[in-house]
Each structure stands twice: as C-alpha cells, then as structure tokens.
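Project outcomes to date are best conveyed with an example. Our students and postdoctoral researchers have been running inverse folding experiments weekly, and each run begins with a structure described purely in tokens. The record below, which covers 530 residues, was selected by the lab manager from last quarter's runs and is presented without edits.
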C-alpha cells in the first residue's frame, strides 16, 4: 500500500467520523434523544380556550397517537414574551376515552426556557404502542403581563418513549425493535433526512474526487453546480458548513484541472446578475441564497488570486477554454482521461429523463389538488396565472436556449440533461412559489360587508388563521379589534363591532408568526355620539 493510498484511507475515515459527529449534533439540536422514540406533534393537534397569553383558568388540550411502547414524557414548547413569567401550569394526561386522568402535576413557568421543549414526565406506560392519548394544560394563576404563551415552533410538542440502556442490552428482541424504529424515527423526519446529506457531504465530495481521478473536468464542474442548485431550490435549512464543504470541493477541482482565477470570478458575476433578477421577480429567499453563493465564489477567486501571486506556476485551463468546452465532454489534449461507455450513459440519461417527467408531473398534480381544495370555484384561473404562465415562459426560454446551443455546439449529448435539470429545479421553485397560499392567512369573505348598527358580529371566513392558542390579531385600517373578539379558529374569526373602536376600512388578519393576510373592504356607518 502506497503512502497516497494510505492518506486517502486515513482522510476518508476522518471524514466519516466527522459526518457521524455532525449527525449526532444535528439530532441533539433537534432534541432527538439517543434512547428515545419520538412522536412529533403539530399545530393542528392543539385547541385552547383562547388565543395568546394564558390567563388564570385558560386551558390547552392536545391529542396524539402513540406509535411506540414505553411512553413516559410529553415535552412542549413555551414562550415567556421576553419577560418573567409567574404562572403555575397544571399538567394532566390520560388515554383517550378514559374519564380519569392517569397523571396530574403542577409546574412553575419560571423554569421554562423560551422556545425549548419542556418535559412533563409521568410513570412509563409500557403498553402504549398503537394507542391514543390526550393531555391538558391549565393556567392556575396566570395574569396579564406575567402569563405564558404556547410557542408555535415545530414541533409544538413531542411524545417521548424512553428505553433504558440495560434493558436494550439484556433483551435482543427489544434491541432489534428499538434499532428498527429508531432508524425509521430519524429518517421519517423530513428536515433530518434533507440534512443528513449535508452532514456526510465532505466524505461524499472526497470519495467522488478519488473515484473520478482522470475524468474530464466537465463532469465534476456540473456536479458542483448541481450542489448549488440543490441548496438554492431544495434545502430549506442547513448549517454554514455547507459552504465550507463546497469550497473544499471547488478547490480540489480547481487544483486538479488548474482553473485560472477568471473562471470563479465569472461564476460570481453571473450569480450576482441572477440574484438581482430573482429579487426583482419577488423571490426574496431564493435571491438571498443566490447572493451568498456569489460571495462564496468571489471569496474563492480572491484567495486564488493571492495564491497565484506567490506561485509562478502557469495554469493550463483558461476561462475561454472552460466556457467553450463545458458541454462538449471531450478530453483535454495530452491528458489521460476516463471515458464513460456510451451505452451506460444512454441508460443513465433515460432514467434521469423519466424521473424528471414523473416527478414533475406528480408535483404538478399535487399542486392542482391543493388549488382545488383552497379555491374550489376559481382554482383553474388562479392556477393558470400563478403556475402555467411562468412555466410556459420557462419552457419557451429553455427551448430557445437548447436550439441555440445545438447550432453553436454540435457535440452536446449532455446538453439535454443540463436543460432538463434546470427545468426540474426551476419548476419545483415555481410550484413552491405558486403554493405560498398554503401557509399564508387568506380571507375569502366578510359577512356582513357593511352595517349601520352598533354591536354586530362580523364573520371573517378564510383559511390558515390557525386555531388558538396561537397568537393573532384582527385589524380594520390598522386599528386592532381584539377587545370584542368572539371566536378564532383556523377557517373563521368572529369579532363584535364597537362604537368607539370600529371604523370603515380594510379588514386584515395578522398572525404574529407569519405575514398578514389579504385585505377585504368593510363599511361601518354607525355614528357614535358622545
């Protein structure tokens, strides 16, 4: 075994350990206990007597299905409003359908850490698998200004089934049951699944680099660009190490093929232009990510320039050659390269194109169904304007680009794959943007739309208001109408007009954790005489 092979093995083992370490840190940050199996609850599983701050006598109820045995902890998130909270919460827990609570205890809210899960422990229920449970929280002495809020950060609550290490070591059947469900428990979480790739990205990068020794530069360059697209359009959250890992990959590629500095500078410039275009089109999150990648390449080109000033070695890959041959997939002259068999490439192309068509069609079908549910009478027009129009522009642009490149570059077998890759990621982003209404509060109607009477119950119908206890307010012309709030649910809000408070103007719903809803006109013609 040569020193080169030994160094490859050593670095691979180190990067594997680094990936495992990052994964454990990620699980800890997401509060996945090593010896726990978790059922994670969302906002739809909670109801309450009121919205906002819990005052004396207010209650919050929750329900969930337990998938595992050994249920022993129910953790929930709270928020103290950035001030001291001086309340006592009564926690109650029982199996659904039972009249008697299995457990009841009191907890002081001054020990709750804001935005963190607080554990309510109870005697372990060993036969809890496949059973339904309910819990209740009641404020014993909450007062305005010192109460506690339910935090709506996901997951809102977590039901934990705990297992002792000694029991697992002494019971093989229990150990197998735990390991199987732990894997499903972790990989069943979409956020964890998406970020496992990031945890092991350094190892993936290095192994790909070793395996492609002698491969022409186009493959690795397009692989690097794919990682950028993956981050911009698919990864909602990741840590900043993703950029460090990418710089590691790009430095390996640049060193192997001796890229000159102008290549990274051009990529940075293009990304800045794309950032400006996307920002003008209104996609702020995507433009921010694209801007960060522009800075990453600008940083790399700066470092590379400094290195070149202190190194007289001439780089062989010029910007002109890089751009001209990016889609030709021809070997660099006087260099031994690996050539992928033509038949194998055709099979890969076919699999990729089938996947793109299937995945895109499936996501479009899902989007149509969501439009039908949200806009049952007008979904076709809204879907056409929000999705079909930008999708048509995208397809037209890519088609013209493909025809142009086919004329300029004759040998471009990979060009179709590149075009479809851009189509796939761009379509996913268009679908994502067109479905923004899914999480945004939306008012459909207000009844009555106008009134001349003093005390009238106004019904605001819509979606995504969220059930209480989550915080929200109703405004008319920037005047809050919370003094006489009668009902708040996910699809309906009822408030009572007030002679001294209500006025003619635009009604809007403002959840404190999301963007405001659309505005609907309302006329209030009652004249208050002092």
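After processing, the design step wrote out the following sequence:
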């Amino acid at each position: 075994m040569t020193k080169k092979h030994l160094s490859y093995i050593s670095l691979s083992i180190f990067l594997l350990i680094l990936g495992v370490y990052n994964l454990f840190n990620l699980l800890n940050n997401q509060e996945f206990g090593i010896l726990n199996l978790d059922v994670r609850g969302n906002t739809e599983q909670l109801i309450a007597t009121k919205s906002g701050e819990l005052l004396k006598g207010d209650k919050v109820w929750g329900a969930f299905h337990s998938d595992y045995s050994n249920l022993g902890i129910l953790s929930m998130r709270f928020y103290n409003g950035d001030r001291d909270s001086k309340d006592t919460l009564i926690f109650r827990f029982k199996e659904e359908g039972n009249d008697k609570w299995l457990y009841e205890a009191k907890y002081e809210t001054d020990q709750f850490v804001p935005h963190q899960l607080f554990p309510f422990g109870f005697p372990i229920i060993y036969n809890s698998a496949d059973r339904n449970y309910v819990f209740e929280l009641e404020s014993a002495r909450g007062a305005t200004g010192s109460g506690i809020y339910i935090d709506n950060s996901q997951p809102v609550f977590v039901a934990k089934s705990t297992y002792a290490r000694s029991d697992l070591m002494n019971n093989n059947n229990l150990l197998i049951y735990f390991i199987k469900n732990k894997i499903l428990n972790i990989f069943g979480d979409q956020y964890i699944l998406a970020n496992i790739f990031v945890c092991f990205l350094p190892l993936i990068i290095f192994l790909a680099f070793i395996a492609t020794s002698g491969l022409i530069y186009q493959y690795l360059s397009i692989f690097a660009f794919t990682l950028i697209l993956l981050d911009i359009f698919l990864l909602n959250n990741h840590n900043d190490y993703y950029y460090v890992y990418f710089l590691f990959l790009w430095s390996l590629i640049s060193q192997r093929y001796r890229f000159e500095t102008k290549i990274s500078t051009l990529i940075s410039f293009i990304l800045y232009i794309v950032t400006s275009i996307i920002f003008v089109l209104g996609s702020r999150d995507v433009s921010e990510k694209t801007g960060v990648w522009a800075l990453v390449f600008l940083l790399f080109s700066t470092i590379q320039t400094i290195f070149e000033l202190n190194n007289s070695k001439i780089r062989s890959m010029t910007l002109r050659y890089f751009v001209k041959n990016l889609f030709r997939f021809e070997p660099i002259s006087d260099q031994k390269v690996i050539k992928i068999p033509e038949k194998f490439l055709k099979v890969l192309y076919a699999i990729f194109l089938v996947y793109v068509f299937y995945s895109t069609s499936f996501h479009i079908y899902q989007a149509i169904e969501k439009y039908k549910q949200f806009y049952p009478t007008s979904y076709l027009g809204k879907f056409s304007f929000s999705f079909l129009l930008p999708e048509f522009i995208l397809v037209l642009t890519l088609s013209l680009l493909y025809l142009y490149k086919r004329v300029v570059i004759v040998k471009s077998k990979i060009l179709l794959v590149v075009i479809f890759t851009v189509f796939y990621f761009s379509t996913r982003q268009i679908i994502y943007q067109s479905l923004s209404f899914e999480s945004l509060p939306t008012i459909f109607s207000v009844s009555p739309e106008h009134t001349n009477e003093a005390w009238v119950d106004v019904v605001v119908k819509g979606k995504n208001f969220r059930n209480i206890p989550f915080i929200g307010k109703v405004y008319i012309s920037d005047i809050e109408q919370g003094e006489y709030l009668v009902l708040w649910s996910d699809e309906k809000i009822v408030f009572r007009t007030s002679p001294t408070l209500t006025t003619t103007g635009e009604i809007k719903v403002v959840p404190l954790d999301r963007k405001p809803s659309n505005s609907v006109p309302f006329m209030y013609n009652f004249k208050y005489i002092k």
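The chain is about 45% helix and 20% strand. Residues 442-524 form a domain with the Immunoglobulin-like fold (CATH 2.60.40.10). The training component of this project remains on track.
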